[in-house]
Amino acid sequence: MAVRALWYRPGTLFVLDQRALPERTRVLRLTRAREVAEAIRSMTVRGAPSIGVAAAYGMALAHREGTLSPTAAAKLLRSTRPTAYDLFVGIETVRSAWEEGRDTEEAADAYRAKVVEECHRIGTAGAPLLARAHRVLTHCNAGALATVEWGTALAPIRVARQRGAHLFVWVDETRPLLQGSRLTAWELARERIPHAVIADNAAGHYLSTGRVDAVIVGADRIARNGDFANKIGTYEKAVVAKENGVPFYVAAPWTTFDARRKDGRSIPVEERGEEEVLSLAGRRVAPESSHARNPAFDVTPAKYVTAFVTPGGVVRPPAVARTLARLARER
Amino acid sequence: MAVRALWYRPGTLFVLDQRALPERTRVLRLTRAREVAEAIRSMTVRGAPSIGVAAAYGMALAHREGTLSPTAAAKLLRSTRPTAYDLFVGIETVRSAWEEGRDTEEAADAYRAKVVEECHRIGTAGAPLLARAHRVLTHCNAGALATVEWGTALAPIRVARQRGAHLFVWVDETRPLLQGSRLTAWELARERIPHAVIADNAAGHYLSTGRVDAVIVGADRIARNGDFANKIGTYEKAVVAKENGVPFYVAAPWTTFDARRKDGRSIPVEERGEEEVLSLAGRRVAPESSHARNPAFDVTPAKYVTAFVTPGGVVRPPAVARTLARLARER
To answer: Which domain holds residue A177?
Structure first.
């Protein structure tokens, strides 16, 4: 059975608890906007497209509850995490429906369906890029868990496999929260896709010794010039990939593109609590008097990106602004 | 009191258990060469200069035991770890004394004293490089624990501090074994040197946003052309430092230089067990059916090195071969 990060029945958002994986498969039932906000903040649900969909349903639940105005509900859900653009798109999509008197649950359902369908199209568009790339490196989790279904970075891998490609995936473990070893490896293991987990430090070693044919990652926000934010560590992989002539692809639905942002310099980067770095599995790994810094994202300049894999096909960085302008006209 | 990784009394090598830090300060007493070999293999004692000194004492203990030939003792200790060149220098130094009928404990003592003195000279030579570098990034542990006393990368930081410099150290946690958060942070915390631990993934973020003035690391083996092996992840930091115009220094005693090796391509890279990546603090963090790869080192080409900090002063990569040839003539 395919992985689904979340699903909705009238009045209840069911969320797979991504903090508990791979040890336990636990599903939370959320009935209030406030619970959805907390699930996003705590990274129970994570990944830019997934948190956009969760927030869309959070708006629908707020409408049902009837205690918050559309503006107050949007503010509550917006305050959870600052970097992923999808969050704001998901919220605004349902807020418009609410303010215009349309059905908010239908609006959230339609938003979810659009994201899932766009991810499937990313898979179709990206699969040919991997036709001759047998060993693919990915960072963090940009799979079904991050996008409700299919994934962004993992969608082309899944489609290429269905078409008979023999792929092997290098999985960066992705400290501090280990979305690679906990979540990406879990998705790949379920589908028996060959893979190996590596410490984030080892990616450069394999890139520089000719053992990676392509890198593919997701994104949390993409600016008009192609600069993009993604999980901390992405920037290093992009620089080292370019240094070694290995193509670097970024896969994302349209909801991740922030057409109003000129470049990556002003993308807000979330800084999370130091305990995520200082402790592991509940055990302190640094001296009691030591502190840590914990930026959750970094910004990679467009010059390191070979191409974006979008629902509309493969887009080279210089064409991002033009593509977004065309999409805006078509809407 | 200054940190010491190990010390010797006739018949006993005392080793600070680096696997237990920072939680517990535990000292092991080793009286047999086989125990020393096991302590090196298990990384109870680690860091290229420290394992060279431990192995030198291991040879002296083997001589005392009287059950192994010099060749058999050397073979036992050589088989522990393949990458650090110091290991082989330490073993051969005491083997020569043994075969020539000199006192092996005196030979090991002299080897230790030379390493410690060279590290102190590295500190003196390197401190001026950090005079205007307020924020220094380091990877792994190249401190007193790795070198018996002083450190290689940390020696210039210590000397610069004694001279009144205000330094702040970014400490890469250094997965998979966390020598940064467990050991480097412990050394810095003891001496109240301001520092922050970061996930290895975050180094690029700080390098690219102008918050690192210099990078300084140790080395496990340096070839004649300046290519060098060091803890996995070093290569990525070097590439990203160069990309951002941040100086990248490599500090090492002479025992780390492998004058017979033309370049880095043939340096043996140790691959360790996958459980170091798949488990954290005894808890599995990846699905049961997933596997991992765990290269312990990577090789960084000389072109990324701004300078080597040696006991003989600061040496630019093109001058390494010349410096080593001069040293060989002087011996």
So the answer is: 126-330
